[in-house]
Amino acid sequence: MSKTTIAIFAAAGAGAGAAVTAAMYSLRSQSERKFDTKATLAPATTGTHSAPIPIPGRHAFTPPTQQLPVPLSKSAPAALGGGGGALPPVDPAGLFEYGFPGPISDIAARSALISSFDRRLRNPQWVVEHITPASLEQREGDRKHSVFLEDEGVPAQFRAKLKDYFRSGYDRGHQVPAADARWSQAAMDETFYLTNMCPQVGEGFNRDYWAHVEDFCRRLTTRYPSVRIVTGPLYLPKRDPADGKWYVRYEVIGNPPNVAVPTHFYKVILAEEDGSSKEGKVALGAFVLPNAPIPNDKPLADFEVPLEAVERASGLEFASKLPPQRRRRLCTDTNCALVIKEYADRQKAFAKPSSPAGLPAPKK
């Protein structure tokens, strides 16, 4: 795979004037992938459920009294102790005695998902789930008994609130869908926390194409005994035709405005061949979809991107410990095609039929 080609493809019109081209960084050559011609190119807890835990950024800071001597750069002025390996005359880490500024990620471990919440954008950074034939076969949960909830585990000044979505024109879009947690009413209820939500376009996306993608993920369990999915928002650049420059622009909802409206969403899928994360092959698929109406006849494969592209755009890593010899490309290993059905019909699936609508009964 060539790593010399780096391109950004911006959103372009697709059906009814909707922008549906995923703006991403591609690491594959033109010969390896055909782009849209319009583009410019932890284990879940059980029982008692924990509230989000504030976790600082990746870097850990050792208290000043426990730090090893760290000399200044050799280029530092001699008056400051540079070049001689002496202790610095300043202690920036002393600030942390008064508190760590962040960034803080609020990690919530629920029964059916684990989420990391971004306090600045008031959206999750990622939400992880795990589905199996057995988990989808159980039908104890019913969506009509669930209600949307603010997550009080996140400090009030950083929390997304129900009123932020009121009359915003956007749906409270699940990152882990409620239908993936029907095995328990409590587990389904937990998917309704706003830390599992992002503002999504309703008609044509959340209630249509996005729902079909979620159904596609569930249908993968007829081929793979274990499917792990990471979902989250992206805020991607788009070229301004007025000056030709690239800008990241997104709407902010709420009063005061504080919840960012993502430009795109990603799904990273790891389908485990033998149901184990320790051995066997893993089929990897990464998809980026614009937060806009998408025609149902648009092939899902059009939104497939290299995993590295999602990592670059999100600043996250998804399979750094998965060796190359265990990897397979999902859309080569199986047919990445959607089964289209009307949203109204999909809603009937929550009436507890014998098997999920549009989803073959998982093999036992």
Record the SSE blueprint.
Blueprint: E1 7-8, E2 25-26, E3 53-56, E4 104-109, E5 113-118, E6 123-131, H1 133-137, H2 162-165, E7 171-174, H3 185-190, E8 197-200, H4 202-219, E9 226-234, E10 238-239, E11 246-247, E12 252-253, E13 259-260, E14 264-272, E15 282-290, H5 307-314, E16 327-329, H6 330-333, H7 343-347
Parallel strand pairs: 15-16
Antiparallel strand pairs: 1-2, 3-4, 4-5, 5-6, 6-9, 7-8, 9-14, 10-11, 12-13, 14-15
Q: What report would you give on this structure?
A:
Homodimer. Residues 109-325 form the DNA/RNA non-specific endonuclease/pyrophosphatase/phosphodiesterase domain. Its cofactor is Mg(2+); Mn(2+). The protein is of the alpha+beta class and 364 residues long. It has one domain: Extracellular Endonuclease, Chain A. It has helices at 133-137, 162-165, 185-190, 202-219, 307-314, 330-333, 343-347, and strands at residues 7-8, 25-26, 53-56, 104-109, 113-118, 123-131, 171-174, 197-200, 226-234, 238-239, 246-247, 252-253, 259-260, 264-272, 282-290, 327-329. An 8-stranded mixed beta sheet has the order 3-4-5-6-9-14-15-16, sandwiched between helices. A hairpin with a 4-residue loop joins strand 5 (113-118) and strand 6 (123-131). It starts with 6 loop residues before the first strand and ends in a 17-residue tail after the last helix. Residues 1-48, 58-70 and 350-364 have low confidence and may be disordered.
